[in-house]
Automatic annotation (TrEMBL):
Keywords: Membrane, Transmembrane, Transmembrane helix. It comes from Sulfitobacter aestuariivivens. The keyword Transmembrane helix applies. The chain crosses the membrane at residues 55-76, 82-103, 115-133, 139-158, 165-184, 204-224, 236-256, 262-282, 294-323. It comes from the Bacteria. This is DUF2157 domain-containing protein.
Length: 361
């Protein structure tokens, strides 16, 4: 069901909505249509700043935040530093909330909203940090409480202001707190690689892929609710995919190549192929970006002497895939059988029509 201008005029005549409300609806519809026209029907929307004024404001917020960290550094020299840290955390959160009411809810600014979200996360993490200092001061416990309170604060911030970037911070905070609490339990890392290694001897890899899968499920929920990607739900999904892609890809790929042999390399090739198909089907490029490094490593493992050839081929494939993404996706989607949720994925066109569109400019 869709409404046109005649329906809106009829609603005004019937007294259902006012003329001002009707003008607002028309302006909103026009803005959304123009936004989709700018990025193209089949592109993946991504925008950090609406204009250079937002860059200017973000710069100001950065300078303000630098001053705030200086105040916190002074607080660390006080005897009551735990309490002072927590209290200043609440003060900072309140100040950021006031700024967000103006820059996010009133001005609808992208860049400042994301910057304020990051500062709010830092301030909410201060509360957990202060609690940790008051309890024992143990580094992993204190860091874990800081990351957990930062993640919880970001979730509250997202509920209040609906800033998509905040969801990525929520996921990263959950991952960071998991790492800290695992270390606090006595499972100390022997190598950074263990962050992504699925094994029976450590929990880091399981925490990484667990957060990644939860982020992916949540991202797909938002994606399937907005297949045309014209609302903030699609942007929510974008930032969650940014977290999900490297956590899932790195964990599975690093675990497969832990003991390099032809069987593990074959499984890695199969995983990369399935991952590529999945990324094309859901119309998200973040998984391919995360996988490209492992594909390069795979080329080096197979033929280290001619690695540059594999790198050249990989780069060519990425360029071709980016240039003809709609063509490839259209052909793939038309060949796939119907499955649950297929009609809720981003729309696609017939491959032959896309070739003609590309050729005609």
């Amino acid at each position: 069901m869709s409404l046109d201008l005649d329906d809106i005029r009829a609603a005004v005549t019937a007294g259902t909505i006012t003329e001002a409300q009707a003008a607002g609806v028309v302006a909103l519809a026009d803005a959304r249509a123009k936004g989709r026209a700018v990025i193209g029907d089949m592109d993946e929307p991504f925008e950090l700043f609406h204009g250079f004024n937002e860059v200017f404001i973000v710069l100001g917020l950065g300078v303000l935040f630098a001053g705030w960290t200086g105040i916190l550094a002074f607080v660390l020299t006080l005897q009551m530093k735990a309490l002072a840290f927590a209290v200043l955390g609440f003060v900072g959160m309140a100040a950021v909330a006031l700024l967000a009411r103006y820059f996010t809810l009133k001005r609808r600014m992208n860049g400042p909203s994301s910057a304020l979200a990051a500062i709010f996360a830092f301030c909410s993490a201060q509360i957990g940090f202060g609690i940790g200092l008051g309890l024992s001061g143990e580094v992993f416990l204190t860091s874990g409480l800081a990351a957990a309170s930062g993640s919880l604060g970001m979730l509250i911030y997202w509920i209040a202001f609906r800033v998509p970037f905040a969801l990525a911070v929520v996921a990263l905070g959950a991952l960071g707190s998991s790492f800290c609490f695992i270390a606090w339990s006595g499972d100390i890392l022997s190598s950074p690689r263990e962050f992504f290694l699925l094994s029976s001897s450590g929990l880091y890899g399981w925490a990484t892929i667990g957060v990644g899968i939860l982020a992916l499920i949540t991202a797909m929920y938002f994606d399937l609710s907005d297949p045309h990607r014209v609302t903030r739900r699609a942007t929510n999904a974008f930032w969650l995919h940014i977290v999900a892609a490297p956590t899932i890809v790195n964990t599975i790929a690093a675990s497969l190549v832990f003991n390099v042999n032809w069987f593990s390399l074959s499984l890695l090739v199969l995983f990369m192929v399935l991952l590529t198909l999945f990324a094309i089907v859901i119309d998200r490029r973040s998984f391919l970006i995360a996988a490209s490094g492992y594909i390069a490593a795979l080329c080096y493992s197979i033929a280290p002497g001619v690695f540059f050839v594999g790198s050249f081929v990989l780069g060519s494939c990425l360029i071709l895939l980016g240039a003809q993404w709609e063509v490839i996706r259209g052909g793939l989607m038309h060949r796939l059988p119907d499955f649950r949720g297929k009609d809720r994925l981003p729309p696609w066109r017939a491959a032959e029509n896309l070739w003609q569109t590309t050729a005609n400019g």
